[in-house]
Design brief:
Blueprint: E1 2-8, E2 16-23, E3 27-32, E4 43-53, E5 55-60, H1 99-105, E6 108-114, E7 121-129, E8 140-150, H2 153-160, H3 169-196, H4 210-215, E9 226-231, H5 234-246, E10 251-255, H6 263-266, E11 272-275, H7 294-300, E12 305-307, H8 319-328, H9 333-338, H10 342-348, E13 365-368, E14 381-384, E15 387-391
Parallel strand pairs: 1-4, 5-6, 8-9, 9-10, 10-11, 11-12
Antiparallel strand pairs: 1-2, 2-3, 4-13, 6-7, 7-8, 13-14, 14-15
Length: 394
């Protein structure tokens, strides 16, 4: 299939003012119309329109809290134990939740979704497509994609209500440190077992520990699993950085609400950040510095970030509008678009497959006749893995 006569925002280099894309499940060719060769394949003419890479929500809970349900569809927080790293998002994601359709129809073609922030260690996250199957296994881009850690009010409030640990920020950090230390020791013991296996110096294999097994990939020296830290307040942000440095983790700061307040000092660490939700009120004390100017301020200090909805906090289909609010807050438009495409893909470690329009990458894209950051605009065409989700070009 071909989409032709469109401006292409590639997010991988120079844009193409009047071009075409060929694709099946992946992009097979992109280029200028001056080099276009007609074939027998289906053509879609997008004259006057602009083609963008599929939008990516770098942090949400799509499918974890099912739409229009209460407890029956609440599968995001197993708040019965503060340390639950062995929980897997793919075992909770409801791929038939109608919000998947909301996402894909708005051009949001991939998300990082998973557990909530009730526990200091909540479990694994997954990067998935929003269209293509009723079975989550067929939507996976990367799983596990990260381990979710949480600091601040959410763990405190969850366990204070039950008069259990943790009820302070100190205890939250201590639980995370203790479990990471156990996992690191477990990995070292396993490595020693395999090193000495079959020799006169063979040591005993440690007893299986599901929690430690889940955390071990964080310490892989070649391709470590990411640690995603839920943190809003400045001190929690710095605690996340402190713990990550102690254990040499590949970390991402999620929400980072006070990021604009501490941007100068935070920039010293060159962290990866997912900001958001940009929509919303200051609904709890640690959100008191929430502002749509935060992305612009952090960009001014050279901090790389993506923008998220935190769905269902902000409905997933409004991801482009959260980027638009960042523009209203002073961020330039190109950086706002990068925050929901290429930056999100790079931060999540999936840029080899999504985030830009390039030959060989998944054919995830949307076509707009106007500005996708406008409240009035919806896509004229959306494709995920080359399959048409929305098509108004008729």
């Amino acid at each position: 299939m071909v989409v032709k006569n469109v401006k292409i925002i590639t997010m991988s280099g120079e844009n193409i003012e009047n071009g075409f894309v060929r694709f099946n499940e992946v992009f097979t060719e992109t280029g200028s119309m001056s080099g276009y060769v007609k074939t027998d394949e289906i053509e879609l003419d997008g004259a006057g329109m602009t083609l963008y890479p599929g939008f990516i929500d770098a942090h949400c809970h799509l499918g974890m809290w099912s739409d229009a349900l209460c407890f029956e569809g609440d599968d995001g927080n197993e708040d019965t134990d503060p340390s639950m790293p062995h929980l897997r998002a793919i075992d909770s994601i409801n791929a038939m939740d109608r919000c998947f359709e909301d996402a894909a129809s708005a051009g949001v073609t991939a998300v990082c979704t998973g557990v909530g922030s009730a526990n200091p260690i909540g479990g694994s996250l997954a990067v998935i497509k929003t269209f293509g199957s009723k079975r989550v296994d067929k939507l996976i881009i990367k799983s596990p994609a990260a381990i979710k850690f949480a600091l601040g009010e959410n763990p405190k409030n969850t366990y204070n209500d039950r008069d259990e640990t943790p009820v302070t920020r100190m205890a939250t950090a201590a639980i995370i440190r203790e479990q990471l230390a156990k996992a690191l020791r477990y990995k070292e013991d396993l490595d020693e077992y395999y090193r000495t296996k079959g020799t006169d110096d063979e040591v005993s294999k440690p007893d299986f520990d599901a929690k430690c097994e889940a955390l071990m990939p964080l310490f892989d020296t070649k391709k470590p699993l990411q640690a995603h830290f839920h943190c809003h307040r400045a001190d929690d942000i710095f605690t996340a950085v402190r713990i990550a440095k102690e254990f040499k983790l590949d970390y991402v700061l999620i929400h980072c609400t006070d990021g604009g307040v501490i941007a100068e000092e935070l920039a010293e660490d060159s962290p990866k950040v997912v900001l958001g939700p940009v929509f919303g009120d200051r609904g709890k004390p640690e959100l008191k510095n929430h502002s749509i100017t935060t992305p612009a301020v952090m960009n001014g200090y050279g901090i790389e970030f993506a923008i998220c909805t935190d769905h269902p906090e902000t409905p997933i289909q409004y991801l482009p509008l959260t980027a638009a609010l960042a523009v209203r807050g002073g961020l330039d438009r190109e950086t706002a678009l990068r925050a929901i495409t290429v930056n999100a893909a790079k931060i999540l470690g999936v840029y080899d497959r999504i985030g830009s329009v390039e030959a060989g990458k998944d054919a995830d894209f949307s076509l707009f006749s106007g500005d996708p950051l406008s409240v009035y605009e919806t896509p004229e065409l959306v494709c995920v893995n080359g399959k048409i989700v929305v098509n108004k070009l008729k």
